[in-house]
Fold each of these.
Amino acid sequence: MLAVENLHSGYGRIQALHGIDVEVRQGEIVTLIGANGAGKTTLLMTICGAPRASKGRVLLDGQDITQMPMHQIARLGLAHSPEGRRIFGRMSVLENLQMGAVAGDPAHYAEDLDKVLGLFPRLRERLNQRGGTLSGGEQQMLAIGRALMSRPRVLLLDEPSLGLAPLVVRHIFDLIRQINQDQGMTVFLVEQNAHHALKLAHRGYVLVNGRVTLAGTGAELLANPEIRAHYLEGG
Ligand code: ATP
């Protein structure tokens, strides 16, 4: 469904990605794990169109989206919940969700809002509260809910566990599993929290300095001694 082929990208002279190949099939949760600065965020952002790839391709259902404008990529069904959540702090929860619906079909708005609020009852209780006053976990729910409002075909999640307490992380990961199982949502999850991500994902990739060094099923990677030593110590 989503295919990344030999993708190169970076910021001016700084090259962050050196030929990435990743595939996410329909209905899968695929994770990309890697240390700080490995290039995880850059990969998600390049898939969404900024920064632009300097080489290689991104295909969505076989269609080349590499050089498309960002809004068009969003309309084709890629929704991105960015690192650090980036919710609109002064807007209400409802207004944040409405922003997410901009890339979607207005005819689906009421139904999609109901679905998202069904998934995140905490947001329903706080619809008129300003986004900036939510807890970290609630802000993460809002960021994911906002991405779902466009009824995407692939949901891209950038470090949803960042800065959250362990119990809250577990809850967020349970919700991601639920979105995948109940709605058949295809998910590409970028995470530093390798333990949780690999337990959740059907398949995973390991990114080191802008290159994929390992790939396998979630269970294979969890059992891999190299991964255990580098990413799972104490996990
Ligand atoms: P983190 O978990 O810390 O966000 P990451 O794996 O997502 O790490 P990236 O943020 O993609 O990594 O960074 C990859 C490389 O690109 C790093 O060397 C980083 O310093 C560099 N980089 C990231 N953003 C920029 C930018 N806006 N301008 C210049 N270089 C950048």
Amino acid sequence: TRLWRGVIDEYRDRLPVSAGTPVVTLREGGTPLVPSPWLSAQTGCDVHLKVEGVNPTGSFKDRGMTVAVSKAAEEGAEAVVCASTGNTSASASAYAVRAGMRPIVLVPDGKIAGPKLAQAVVHGGIIASVDGNFDDCLRLARELAETYPVALVNSVNPYRLAGQKTAAFEIVDDLGDAPDIHVLPVGNAGNISAYWMGYREYGADGMSTRLPMMWGFQAAGAAPLVHGAPVEMPDTVASAIRIGSPASWESAVQARDESGGLIDMVTDEQILAAQQELSGREGLFVEPASAAGVAGLLHYAQHGRLDPARRVVVTVTGHGLKDVDTASSFYGEIRPYPVAADADDAAEALGLTR
Ligand code: F0G
């Protein structure tokens, strides 16, 4: 075994960097591909989870951010700006301070999970709370970057998607080939586009023998790609994917169609149930948005729309600790057994018998 170097040095030949690019990295990527016995039993497929919550700031955003911030550093940027439902702002802040740049983050007022905001704060983010939703924030971020000397690090920045495609490389490297189906949550639609880019590139270079069908899932209250039209007031418990007008609309539709895949939606109830199953059965705590793909896969399996014996990879995009309030409220008030610091008393309270 050797030390994982981060996505730029692991996949340098496949990324838009040169010897002169200052590499800004937290050694992101190299995330575990974990077999999922429970999902495999439920679906009759061979299901693996790509666990992106173990990245340095707790979500897949770090893969793209290392490339975007390295390129911004190469270009001499002194500040970066992004719009975010939380994870991008956490990642942008961490990578920007590491590069000695000022992170400016635009978030929808009161609409992002507390721990994500805390991450932006501890990394010295200059935080603007925008009276509007994510789509308004993104419009504002684009305008600021056009007029002022700040580098835009949302996924409309092609370096972001270039970095994020490395997750597909890792999966092929781990499995020895591409899966039959790749499932993931969809919000601003950058990630599904990046994975498809990665699978196609690896396939074209003979690194895999097949390309997966791309299956994306949106939240029912924020499903513009399913409806084929923007959603004015997107609404879902999965705040990370509360997006009504995805920036990577065309490339996501292209990923769906070229791969023979689909983009569908799941309800908040299905999302929360999937989150609970993953934590309670598989030992994996993911944030609500991250459970949308799992919810979708289960839904398709339950309705006989998933062929058995397929090899399936589901990306779970962010760590459960990113949004503890939603998880806690779903489980109700936490009431541990009060016990004295005495083994016999504790055993009695906990129902242990000899
Ligand atoms: N899962 C999580 C945990 C996310 O934070 C996001 C997007 C997605 C899925 C959807 O990915 O946008 O590429 O389709 N979060 C962005 C943010 C919008 O600002 O952190 P996508």
